[in-house]
């Protein structure tokens, strides 16, 4: 039966006496996979569907895209993710297949904000990001900055975008905006956020910013995108369009939609505040470990030989007493250990309870209010660039890229 249908056929599904229009994707386990007009996939018996029409031939995309060179020159560095995704007719899901040129074709209004040069670094979903790709990305962005672009847009999957934004925050000194942007919902869905996020990111890239940021929906409405500092942002929801939040501080600005007007807070680093520089070395033998009740000492001992370990502890920064000696042993072997909190809001303070004071005696570094994932990326960078152990500890305690706040916000 599946031979009568081809990927892209427009079909009617009739089940429960209700006809629904959709697009035939593929067959699986003897069922037809159909993408409904609301963007969701369903599996139905072939007997329930009938073809309305076959898809029109898709014209070859234009090779040359006309642009206004009087507008700011911006760079798009593409790494993939949902914002650069297409339907995979083999699985019925979306997969990262598009590149930066495809984004310019799909969102013509981008050409009213700037004129673009594009660079396709990789095409992956962000769970496949690695520290070595961070280094490639940092080099690519640095080269674009040295080419005197007005700003750089990095298209990226949302799942690990906060890690990558933090990594580039430490690896780059940038006098121009470096904007990470993604999408929570792919372009085949009516509720897609890709167009608005892309347009707002372009406007932010042409603005007076001078640091690494993430630009994504500020609410579930299509009216504003928030500008988040790259070291203080976290993905806080699996699927909502406003999944990203600044933690411990408010967003450092916003972009109104559809006007694309940019407003920056006084704390936002301004354009031209530094000279461009690249410090791309990373020590990859670092790890992030979340404490849980009953964690065995072997969980700590497993990181023997690592250069660094970030612990995500409870409350003010605690682990059980049974782990204190293994932590002491690890530090004695030369592993740097930093304590952060699973609470996200508030500040680590290991001087209140006995457990905390015992941890400090082992040599654990208090992580103040740094986010655990930012602490991991910072540790990789510090241990890759510090002159010696003393310098590394000083750097970890220093507020280099706004990763610490002077005063913890309430957050509730």
Can you describe what's shown?
This protein is α/β, with parallel strands linked by helices and 412 residues long. It folds into three domains: 52 residues, SH3 type barrels, CATH 2.30.30.520; 206 residues, Rossmann fold (3-Layer(aba) Sandwich), CATH 3.40.50; 112 residues, Rossmann fold. Helices cover 22% and strands 28% of the residues. It contains nine helices and 23 strands. It has an eight-stranded mixed sheet with strand order 9-6-10-12-13-14-17-18, sandwiched between helices. The protein has a five-stranded antiparallel sheet with strand order 4-3-2-1-5, with no helix packed on it. Helix 7 links the parallel strand 22 and strand 23. The chain is globular and about 75 Å long. It starts with 9 loop residues before the first strand and ends in a 15-residue tail after the last helix.
